[in-house]
Amino acid sequence: MLQIEQLTKTFGRNNAVDNATISIDRSMMIGIIGRSGAGKSTLLRMLNRLEDSTSGAIHFEGREITSLKTGEKRAWQAQCAMIFQQFNLVPRMDVVSNVLHGTLNRRSTFASLLNLYPQEDIHRAIDILERLGIAEHAPKRAEALSGGQQQRVAIARALMQDPRIILADEPIASLDPMNAQVVMEALRRIHEEDGRMVIANLHTLDTARRYCDRVIGMRDGRIVFDGTPEQLTTGVARDIYGADAGFSEAATSTEIGALDRVGLTPVTA
Ligand SMILES: Nc1ncnc2c1ncn2[C@@H]1O[C@H](COP(=O)(O)OP(=O)(O)OP(=O)(O)O)[C@@H](O)[C@H]1O
Ligand SMILES: [Mg+2]
User: Fold this and answer.
1) Is 19 helix (H, G, I), strand (E, B) or coil?
2) pTM of structure
3) Residue 269, in any domain of the structure
């Protein structure tokens, strides 16, 4: 379904992503973990063509992605919607207009101010907000919502594009544990109910283990682990994060008590 082949991105003399090969044969929820600077964001950005690769290839259902140009590239970007740590909403615009933005290109921002959306799109936006449990906030300004609610608005905006893949770059890094859980559960549900692939950069091990079918570990631009949450043992995690870093699982946990729930023993370095 999605094949990443020897993908490399070089900035100056630094390989941000170094010869990454990943083969995904069906829609899954995938977590990418690794220390700061490991190359997680660069990998996601190359996937949706926000960043050009230096070498290598990406195939989605047989089609080569890295060489797509103009209209085809934009169509691909609509098919793999991106969600960011900082939500990237228009803060002073109401929630439903933010969601409707998912259907428009930049040129139409003005139309949005004039409420020039097809009735059908407005209904769909409300339905999606309903599904995410935030329809009651539809008329409010985005900035009036909590972080967790804003991230769900960003997910709703992504869903308006009806994407095949949702790429999430640290979607819960700015959220408290409660909101983090709500957002991860929303992504999981979207994956299970719609069959959309979700690829999320996560900075905590426990989140990757709890919500993902498959976990990819990156270190210094390279893929150093690719397996199931069960295979992601403490020893493997230590290798991904660097044994010399005073590694402790607790330090990579979003949630107090999360380790207990997944039956893992916190390790001290
Ligand atoms: N536009 C850029 N120009 C130069 N170097 C860059 C650029 N973007 C990323 N890098 C470098 O590439 C490497 C990988 O960065 P990347 O942002 O992909 O890491 P990351 O795993 O997402 O880290 P974090 O967890 O901090 O978000 C780092 O060494 C970073 O400094
Ligand atoms: Mg990053």
Assistant:
1) strand
2) 0.88
3) no
In short, whether 34's Cβ falls inside 6 Å of ligand 1 is: yes
Q: By residue range, what is the domain housing residue 227? A: 2-87+165-261
The structural domain count of the chain equals 1
Distance, CA of 167 to CA of 84 (rounded, Å): 9
Distance, in Å, from the CA atom of 132 to the CA atom of 231, rounded to the nearest integer, reads 32
Residues of the chain with pLDDT under 50: 106-107, 245, 255-269
pLDDT of residue 156: 96
Q: CA nearest 80: which of 104, 60, 108, 105?
A: 60
What's the confidence (pLDDT) of residue 242?
81
Give the pLDDT confidence of 103-121 residue by residue, as tens digits: 765 445 666 566 677 888 8
Please tell me whether residue 84 adopts helix, strand or coil conformation: strand
Considering every ligand atom, which ligand is closest to the CA of 217? Answer: 1
For residue 73, the CA-to-ligand 2 centroid distance in Å is 23
Q: Is residue 56 part of a domain?
A: yes
* Structural domain includes residue 178: yes
